[in-house]
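Here is one chain, start to finish.
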Amino acid sequence: MTRPWHLGFGLVMTALAGYVDALGFIRLGGLYTSFMSGNTTQFAVHLGHGEPGGALLPALLIAAFLLGGICGGGFSALLPPRWGTPAILAFETVVVAAAFSAAVTTPTDHVASLLLALAMGAQNAVLAHVQGFRAGTTFVTGALFGFGQKLALALAGRGPRFAWMGDGFVWLSLLVGSLTGTIAYAELSLYALAIPAGLAGCLAVMATVLTMLHEPGAAQRWPRTPDA
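Its structure:
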């Protein structure tokens, strides 16, 4: 995929992460399915208060996220570079769809939440830095810092005038996704999980098609039909 496509995919995936995280936060009462800094803090607080039972779910979410990162990194390492993004998105689609199925068929939210954390961990391996900033991840603390730093340099005349916009859009994507997830949950309850599952599937199909079109030799295999 070209850089503009990577950027577009990254912003959509950042919004997807915000959407999923908002649902997890609401449903789990303050825990997250993609923001592991918050879960780590919750884990430590429960341990500090001598509440090992309360520390269990944050620990499991962290472990699931870590496993997802290992899976995503494995796909990136073992597959040809151009096929890493389609494969990880396909994996994410299957896992989010499984989370949706678990959410609407089982009485507990824990299975669905762990599956979502697994999917979000894998998502972070999809894209590398694009034009100096990182999109497609499940956290935006670095993007927010980069936004402020680059804006300061631009205002001081010591950096590119609009370099801050990329990081700003990454942060805004997470915000819009989280807001959309909150509204969707209010209207659809757990059926709102069907939306990120479908969106991840669409991204996987698009990434596959774009990869095939830009694969070396694609022009020879798929010649254009001459005009009449």
